[in-house]
Design brief:
mainly alpha
């Protein structure tokens, strides 16, 4: 995931070949690239971040649930 971000940041910092940097469309594209890079690098809003206890509970249930299913299959035979 970091390699595409590195390419995006390099693109946003390098001037476009064959274009004047003083044109308004080039400046607008530059601002859009920087805004996109900033949004990709910013952390998630707190409303979207899962609480740690819920995440730990999910993985514990998934781990032991899978083991329980395997044990049930073995005991069924």
């Amino acid at each position: 995931m970091l390699h595409p971000l590195e390419d995006l940041l390099a693109l946003s910092q390098a001037p476009q070949a064959g274009q004047e940097t003083s044109s308004s469309s080039a400046q607008r594209r530059q601002r859009q690239r920087l805004a996109l890079a900033q949004r990709l690098l910013d952390p998630l809003p707190t409303a979207l971040v899962a609480p740690e206890a819920a995440a730990d509970r999910f993985w514990t249930v998934l781990r032991w649930g899978g083991l329980g299913l395997i044990l049930a299959r073995v005991l069924q035979r």
